[in-house]
Design a protein that fits this description.
The complex is a heterodimer of chains A (330) and B (532). Chain A has 330 residues and is an alpha+beta fold. In chain A, strands 4-5-6-7-12 form a 5-stranded antiparallel sheet. Chain A has a 4-stranded antiparallel sheet with strand order 8-9-10-11, with no helix packed on it. Chain A has a two-stranded antiparallel ribbon with strand order 1-2. Chain A has 7 helices and 14 strands. Among the domains of chain A are: 79 residues; 142 residues, Rieske Iron-sulfur Protein. In chain A, helix 2 runs antiparallel to helix 3. In chain A, a hairpin with a 5-residue loop joins strand 13 and strand 14. Chain A is 34% helix and 16% strand. Chain B is mostly helical. Chain B has 3 domains: 31 residues; 311 residues, Cytochrome Bc1 Complex, Chain C, CATH 1.20.810; 159 residues, no CATH class. Chain B has 19 helices and 8 strands. In chain B, helix 4 crosses helix 5. Chain B starts with a helix and ends with a helix. The relative contact order of chain B is 0.09. The chains are: A alpha+beta (330), B mainly alpha (532). At the A-B interface, helix 3, strand 3 and helix 6 of A face helix 7, helix 8, strand 4, helix 10 and helix 12 of B. Strand 3 of chain A pairs antiparallel with strand 4 of chain B.
Chain lengths: 330, 532
C-alpha cells in the first residue's frame, strides 16, 4: 500500500446518555402506557376488520375526499387489517426504543480466512483422499464419467422438446388470400367501398366460416386496418397503387416492431401511431416509418372488390406480418 | 422456587438441547451484535415485503385459475357481462368482485411487489455507495444482483398472469424480444408459448414459474444472503470507537429482535393500508386481452420502465443479410444493454479491487465523498437508468404536460448520452468539495455565525472546534495512492503484460488519483500551536 496518514486520536465510544425512562419512574410508567395503547389500537383494528368483513355489504359505497366514491367494505377491512398490523409494529418499536436496554455493546470480529494450519491440513486431506481413490491414475474412469455426466445433462433439453411445435411456415402465413372478403372487427360485417368516407379508418379481419370461434393466434396475425384517403394524396409506386382501391389502402395492424396493434390514427396528419413504443407510420407513403424504433413499414395488403361489390383481398400479404425474426427474408 | 412457566420453558429447552446441542450456539447468537443505522433497514424492507408477497400470493392462488381457455363471463361485474375472456382473467375478476378481501389481497400483493423491487434497488444503492460490497462481501453482492434480476422477472410474470389487456401487451413485447434472438429466437418463442402467440399455454406455464420455481430460488438465495450477513457480521459506519476489528451495536435479543420484528409489522401494515386506500392495477377497467386492442398510455410497472424506455428510444436499426434478419432495435435495448448493465454490476467489486490492488477485508463503510470515483460512477449509472425510465413514460409525460412526444424522445435520446458523463463529472467535483469542507472543519472548526468586532475595528466570525469524535470520524479514512505500472528494467526490457498493467494503473489512477489530503495530527497541532 502507500504511506498512510494516521487519523487523529480515536477518542473511543462516546459516553452513554441515559434516557428519561431509565432514570425517571414517571417517564417509565408513561412509556409503558404508551406501548400498551399502541397494542390496544391494533386490537381495535382487528375488530374493525372482522366487523367490516361480516357486516358491511360489498356493494355499499361511501364518498371520501381525495379518494372519491369508495367501496365501504374494502375500506373497512383494509383499514382495519392495516392498522391492526401497523400498531403491533409501532408498539414493539416504541417498546424497544424507550424501555429496552439501549446501551451499545462491542463485539470483536475475526478474519474470515482460516488459519494457515487449517488450510494446509485441508489441502492434505483433499490430496490424501484423491490419492486413495487414485483419481490421477484412473483416467479411463475419469473420462467415461465425464462423458456420461455431459450426456445425461442433455436429457432435460430433450425432455423439453415437446414444449411447442417447430415454427415451420406458420410465421409466414396469415388467413388473408386472394378473394377473401374483408369484414369489420368487431361485427364481422363485409364492407363496400362506399361504407368508408375519406378520412375513415376501419379495423378489419378476413371473413371466415365460423366468426364466433376465431382463434386468437389467427387474430394476432390477421388484424388489419383500412384507411380511406383521397387517391391523389397517395404517394406510392405504380404496383403499390394497384393494391389500393379508390383511395382505400389496407395495412397489417400488427406493428412491425414488437407486435402491438397500431391502433391510433391521426386523421389530419395521416399518421398511424403505435402506443407501445411510439413508432409512427406515414399512411400516404405506404406506412413508411417516420419516427420511433420500428425499422420496417407496416405490410400492405393488396385489395380490390369482388363481383358483388364487396372489398376483398387481392392477394395474400407478400411478406410476414408482425415483429421481425431471424428467418425473416426481407 | 421456579414458577410453572419457567419449568415449562426449561423443559422445552432441555428437550431440544439434548437432541441438538443447540444451547451453546443459540446463546452465542442471541447476543449477536447488530449495528444500528436507518439505511440498514432497506434490505429488511425487501425481506419483509417478500414475506408479504408469499402470504398474499398464497391467498390469491386459492381462487386464481391459470388457464387461457376462452369462456363467457357471468360474474357480478356487470360492465363485462357476456364478454368472451380467458379463465385467468375471469377468475381475477371473481377474486376482485366476488371473494371478500380478494381485491384487498390483490392490491396488497401488487403494492408489496413494487415495494420489494424498490427496497432491493435502494438497498443496492446503499451497499454500492458505502462500499459494503468490498472483500469479504463480494459473494453476497453477486447474490444480491441475482435476487434483483429474479425479482424483476418474477414481477413481470406476476403482472402478466391476469391476462388483461395491459399485461397481454407486455407479454406480446416479451415474445417479440425472445423471437428477435438470432438463430434460436423463433424456436425459443415457439417452445415458450407452445406455438404461435398468444396460444393457450403461456399463462399456465408462467403460473408454475411464478408461484413455485422463482419464489423457491429467491427463498433459497435470501437464506444464503442472510446466513452470510450473519456469519460475516454486519458492516458499520465509521465513528469514534468503531474499528475494522470490532462491531458496535445492539444485541439481537431483545432490542434488535423487537425493532426488526416490529418493523416487519409496520411494513406489513403500511402495505395493507396502501392496498386499502390506493388503487393499483384495476384490470377490470383494462378489459380482457385480445391481440387487436390496446389502450393508449400502456405502461409496465416501474422496475420494467427503464427497459421499455430504452426500447422506445432505440434507433430503427435492422440488418437483413443472406436471407436472415437481425433486429438491433430490439436486441440492443432489450437484451444487450441490460446484459452489460447487470454483468458489469455483478463484476464491479472485483474490478475495483483489481484496480486498487486492495486485498484486505473491509468492515467499516466508506463515506461516499471519500470514494469520489465510485460515487461518481454510481451517479452516472443512476442517471442513465433514470433517463431511460423517464422515456418509458414519455407518452404520459406528453399528455400530462402537453408536450410533443417526438421532442421528449429526442431529448431523452440525447440526454442518455450526455447526462451520465456530466453526472460523473459533477458528482466527482461535489465529492472533492465535500472533502475540502471536511478538512476545513477539522482544521478550523465549525462556523458559529457569531460576528465579533475586534478592538482595531476588524470583524471576524468565531469558529468553534468540533468534537474529538467528529474530528476522528472525518479523518479515519485511508487515502491510498494509485498503483504504479511496473517500470522497464535497466536493460530497457518492458515487464510482461504491458497492456494489462497499463489499463490497471490507468484505472487505479482514475479511482484513487484525486483526493483532498486529509488533515494530519501534525497539521492540527501546528494550527493549535499557532492559534491566538
Amino acid at each position: 500500500m502507500s504511506k498512510e496518514i494516521a487519523p487523529l486520536q480515536d477518542p473511543g465510544l462516546p459516553h452513554h446518555v441515559h434516557r428519561k425512562a431509565d432514570t425517571d419512574p414517571v417517564a417509565e410508567k408513561r412509556a409503558e402506557r404508551q406501548v400498551s395503547i399502541l397494542f390496544l389500537l391494533s386490537s381495535a383494528g382487528t375488530l374493525l376488520f372482522i366487523y367490516s368483513f361480516i357486516w358491511i355489504p360489498t356493494d355499499v359505497f361511501v364518498f371520501l375526499p381525495v379518494l372519491g366514491n369508495t367501496n365501504a367494505h374494502q375500506l373497512g377491512i383494509g383499514a382495519g387489517l392495516g392498522f391492526a398490523l401497523f400498531f403491533i409494529g409501532a408498539g414493539a418499536v416504541h417498546w424497544a426504543k424507550t424501555l429496552m436496554p439501549d446501551e451499545e455493546v462491542v463485539a470483536q470480529r475475526h478474519e474470515m480466512r482460516s488459519s494457515d494450519e487449517d488450510r494446509a491440513s485441508f489441502v492434505e486431506t483433499v490430496k490424501g483422499e484423491a490419492a486413495k481413490v487414485q483419481l490421477g491414475r484412473r483416467s479411463l474412469i475419469k473420462r467415461s464419467l465425464g462423458l456420461s455426466l455431459g450426456l445425461v445433462g442433455l436429457s432435460p433439453l430433450i425432455l423439453l422438446r415437446d414444449l411447442g411445435p417447430l415454427p415451420e411456415q406458420s410465421l409466414l402465413k396469415t388467413t388473408w388470400d386472394k378473394g377473401v372478403r374483408i369484414v369489420t372487427d368487431p361485427g364481422n360485417r363485409p364492407l363496400r367501398p362506399e361504407d368508408l368516407e375519406v378520412g375513415a379508418i376501419v379495423h378489419v379481419l378476413p371473413e371466415i366460416k365460423d366468426p364466433e370461434h376465431r382463434k386468437l393466434n389467427d387474430i394476432a396475425k390477421d388484424a388489419s386496418i383500412l384507411i380511406r384517403v383521397r387517391p391523389s394524396e397517395l404517394k406510392l409506386s405504380e404496383e403499390r397503387m394497384s393494391w389500393t382501391h379508390e383511395g382505400i389502402i389496407a395495412f397489417s395492424k400488427i406493428c412491425s416492431h414488437m407486435g402491438c396493434p397500431v391502433a391510433l390514427y391521426e386523421r389530419t396528419t395521416k399518421h398511424l401511431l403505435c402506443p407501445c413504443h411510439q413508432s409512427t407510420f406515414d399512411v400516404p407513403t405506404g406506412a413508411k416509418v417516420i419516427f420511433g424504433p420500428a425499422a420496417r413499414p407496416l405490410p400492405q395488403l393488396a385489395i380490390t372488390v369482388d363481383s358483388e361489390g364487396y372489398l376483398v383481398a387481392a392477394a395474400a400479404f407478400n411478406e410476414p406480418v408482425g415483429p421481425s425474426f431471424w428467418e425473416r427474408n426481407s | 422456587m421456579k414458577s410453572r412457566r419457567e419449568k415449562v420453558a426449561g423443559g422445552v429447552a432441555n428437550f431440544i438441547d439434548e437432541r441438538t446441542g443447540a444451547a451453546k450456539w443459540v446463546k452465542k447468537n442471541l447476543q449477536k451484535v447488530f449495528p444500528d443505522h436507518w439505511s440498514f433497514m432497506l434490505g429488511e424492507i425487501a425481506l419483509y415485503s417478500f414475506i408479504i408477497l408469499l402470504l398474499s400470493g398464497t391467498f390469491l392462488t386459492f381462487w386464481f385459475v391459470p388457464s387461457q381457455e376462452e369462456i363467457v363471463y357471468e360474474g357480478s361485474y356487470q360492465a363485462l357481462e357476456g364478454v368472451k375472456m380467458s379463465e385467468a382473467y375471469a377468475s381475477t375478476l371473481d377474486i376482485t368482485f366476488d371473494v371478500r378481501g380478494g381485491l384487498l389481497m390483490r392490491q396488497v400483493h401488487h403494492w408489496a411487489a413494487l415495494l420489494f423491487l424498490a427496497a432491493m434497488v435502494a438497498h443496492l444503492l446503499r451497499v454500492f455507495f458505502t462500499g459494503a460490497f468490498r472483500k469479504p462481501r463480494e459473494l453476497n453482492w453477486i447474490l444480491g444482483v441475482a435476487l434483483l434480476t429474479l425479482g424483476i422477472v418474477e414481477g413481470f410474470l406476476g403482472y402478466s398472469l391476469p391476462d388483461d389487456l395491459l399485461s397481454g401487451t407486455g407479454v406480446r413485447i416479451a415474445q417479440a424480444i425472445i423471437q428477435a434472438i438470432p438463430v434460436l429466437g423463433t424456436y425459443l418463442a415457439f417452445f415458450a408459448f407452445g406455438g404461435e402467440f398468444p396460444g393457450t399455454m403461456f399463462i399456465p406455464r408462467i403460473y408454475t414459474v411464478h408461484v413455485l420455481l422463482i419464489p423457491g430460488i429467491i427463498l433459497a438465495l435470501i437464506t444464503v444472503h442472510l446466513m452470510l450477513v450473519w456469519y460475516q457480521k454486519h458492516t458499520q459506519y465509521p465513528g469514534a470507537g468503531r474499528t475494522e476489528k470490532n462491531v458496535v451495536g445492539y444485541p439481537l435479543l431483545p432490542v434488535y429482535m423487537a425493532k426488526a420484528g416490529g418493523f416487519f409489522f409496520i411494513v406489513f401494515g403500511v402495505t395493507v393500508l396502501l392496498g386499502a386506500f390506493a388503487q393499483i392495477n384495476p384490470i377490470w377497467i383494462f378489459g380482457p386481452y385480445t391481440p387487436t386492442q390496446i389502450s393508449a398510455g400502456s405502461q409496465p410497472d416501474w422496475y420494467m420502465g427503464w427497459l421499455d424506455g430504452l426500447v422506445r428510444m432505440s434507433p430503427p436499426l435492422e440488418t437483413h443479410a443472406f436471407g436472415y434478419t437481425i433486429s438491433w432495435n430490439i436486441l440492443l435495448p432489450g437484451l444487450i444493454l441490460p446484459g452489460i448493465i447487470f454483468t458489469g454490476m455483478a463484476l464491479y467489486p472485483f474490478i475495483e479491487a483489481w484496480a486498487t490492488g486492495d486485498k484486505r477485508e473491509h468492515h467499516l463503510l466508506d463515506r461516499p465523498r471519500n470514494a469520489p470515483t465510485r460515487t461518481a460512477l454510481g451517479a452516472m449509472s443512476l442517471t442513465f437508468m433514470v433517463v431511460a425510465l423517464i422515456n418509458g413514460g414519455n407518452d404520459l409525460i406528453a399528455t400530462h404536460f402537453n408536450l410533443s412526444i417526438n421532442q421528449i424522445m429526442w431529448a431523452t435520446r440525447i440526454s442518455i448520452i450526455i447526462l451520465p458523463p456530466l453526472a460523473y463529472i459533477i458528482t466527482k467535483r461535489v465529492c472533492l468539495s465535500l472533502q475540502r469542507y471536511d478538512r476545513e472543519l477539522v482544521l478550523h472548526g465549525r462556523e458559529t455565525g457569531r460576528l465579533v468586532l475586534l478592538p482595531h475595528g476588524e470583524y471576524i466570525e468565531v469558529h468553534e472546534p468540533i468534537s474529538p469524535e467528529k474530528a476522528y470520524m472525518l479523518t479515519q479514512h485511508e487515502q491510498p495512492l494509485p498503483l504504479q505500472a511496473p517500470e522497464a528494467d535497466e536493460n530497457g526490457v518492458a515487464p510482461r503484460g504491458g497492456l494489462k498493467n497499463k489499463v490497471r494503473s490507468r484505472l487505479s489512477k482514475a479511482i484513487l488519483g484525486e483526493q483532498i489530503a486529509k488533515p494530519t495530527p501534525e497539521d492540527v497541532k501546528a494550527l493549535e500551536g499557532g492559534h491566538h
